[in-house]
Amino acid sequence: MTDEPEIEPIEITYDEDLYPARPKRLRPRSNLRASNIRRSFSDPRSADASNPSYIEWLTRQSMLRDAEVLGRGLSGQPSMWRHPYARPDARRAIRTASVWFTAYPISLITAPGHSYLAALGDDALWEAFQRIGITAVHTGPVKLAGGITGWSSTASVDGHFDRISTQIDPAFGSDDEFRQLSDVADRHGGSVIDDIVPGHTGKGADFRLAEMGYKDYPGIYHMIEIPEEDWHELPPVPDNRDSVNLDAATEERLADLGYIIGQLQRVIFYSPGTKETNWSVTAPVLGADGRTRRWVYLHYFKQGQPSINWLDPTFAGMRLVIGDALHSLGDLGSSALRLDANGFLGVEKSAEGTPAWSEGHPLSEAANHLIAGMVRKVGGFSFQELNLTVEDIRDTGRVGADLSYDFINRPAYQHALAMGDTEFLRLTLRTSLSTGVQPVGLVHALQNHDELTYELVHWATLHRADLYPFRDEEMTGAQLAETIRADLLEKLTGEAADYNLVFTTNGIACTTASVIAASQGLTTLDDIADDHIDDIQRAHLLLVMFNAWQPGVFALSAWDLLGMLPLPASEVRELIAEGDTRWVHRGAHDLMDVDTEAVMSSSGMPRGRSLYGSLPDQLGRQDSFASQVSEILSIRSTLGLDVGTQLDIPDVAHQGMLVMVHRLDEGDDSKEDAPIQVTVLNFTGETIEGTVRSSALTPRRTVYDARTGEEVGRVDDLQSFTVRLEPYAGLCLLGRDAAEEEAAAEAREADDED
């Protein structure tokens, strides 16, 4: 038998008279009054607060408890003082891991009897990764997620991003298998990248203890106790539910009563009747002190993802998140962490009648500084998925994560391909540069587990009234964002391609291959025949060149490596029934031909259609997608392009052309004679010719192809040269330096004399 946990009754004695100057409805009376309902503690079988054994059972599983144990184990150790931690260092992170494979646990087909983590730790897979040039694996979320109802676990509501434990989910493997993966990666010169979620948890033990008002647990979340006399303001909760979303009218009433801060800047994943606000209310919950409470809690995302409060006096949320990070880095052996939903860590009431301040809040920057600083302090690095304005990415990156996901250019390069026009892509690249975000600080990715995001937050929010030149006119940021969304919807969904599905207001559920297929006029999955594969592969390699032939991290997934198409909607009907269409692009795949007969992954995801074949098959063919990706990455690595500096995004002679100019200086501004590299790309399916002109080019220097060594042209006195590009082709060009030009001139003279 274990000792019964201490039950601490809570008595609130604040006096309303302490707030005489505050309007009555803003006085914190909602925090001061309590229900008179009492319960006896009797039934040892009860899955509620009347049973001390149930509270103890929850406590043993809680992330907050694990964080306390981990913190005590590391506190005062010399290992905590061996690494610099104050400032982000993108280039240090890139030198650790320059090319990432983005995995997704529920979609990987494994050999019979092998777990997901065991499959990722296979030596043969890492040998294939080495041949391609991949230096890190991002595992995706693999810790327990979902929730707890009574004594039972409930499934994840968001692809395991609703974490409830530091323990590895047995469905994906074990802690020991994760450690083995880290060891295998290290033997092959690679690294493992794990996830933490500083913005929310699932409804696991921590949330259930918070509902019970137990110890520090309510301090983890943005949750407000509503006194019983105002329960009539709350909607009823059906017997088969533990909470319901508030409608806008109820949100406004509770804000007027002073309980919550009300409407936020936007409702992510908005869905009528399912999620109309960012607030939900619980059913009555018996507390550890015998009181019954109802809570209203904040969730930026889904109802099963209660938001963490980073400025509660207990700092319980902060302790939980830091503990989870230390477990991944110190105990499991990962080298880096992705910070998910880290742009929503601060929320504050605004002036009357305006939405609460919930994006770009200084508290988010402060919290990110703490998380990223702790990660660096133990020798790791971090990256963030911050889909906010470019200024937010810049400001958070000054003190927070070492790298940021490239939400700036990802929808823009998809748009360039769909339209055969790079104008918007050139605008996004220039905006990034002018705002102070160098591409070296970004993770340039092809497909991941999420949708093609087209929220275009930078233009649709902070800069919605600013004017931008586009298509021979001036548009406001809001008009520009709407125009780009309309283009993508028209070209990639509906009658143009019924296999790419709209995902709420966020973007389009699709694979990279299906974006290309739609851009090339293939309207149904059945239309995509074997004789279309070469054209799709050629455009896919173009997108690899765009992302890899610029400074920063390059990331791609199995869906990219194998050329996966979306699943027919009918095969995931139940998963997409409530509007989460992203499941169509998460089809199962078999990287290494470990189970060719499998029709689904061990998690039950149906197997998707691969256009390119498995890695063993591709690496046996020089003309395959994977083999050509290897060649592209080899050039990138040889030049040190990944740690260079972007200088210019010049105007172009053809609307389908893109030019990026870089200095190969490893970030050292003092290297005035560092080589200049030029990436030239053709986003159209036709052969084009055009002039490359940039003030960064040195006149009278020869330009040659870094891949073949062949001379392409010579920079004239107008700092320009001409190129010819086949459909969907790209060039990685270098200019000879002065010594090379002199040697070449001497060689030519010698040839002439002979």
Automatic annotation (TrEMBL):
Q: Which organism is it from?
A: Mycetocola miduiensis
Query: What InterPro entries does the database record attribute to this sequence?
Result: GH, Trehalose_synth
Top-level taxon: Bacteria
Q: Sorted alphabetically, which Gene3D superfamilies does this protein's record hold?
A: Glycosidases
Name the record gives this protein: Trehalose synthase
What SUPFAM superfamilies does its record include?
Answer: (Trans)glycosidases (SSF51445)
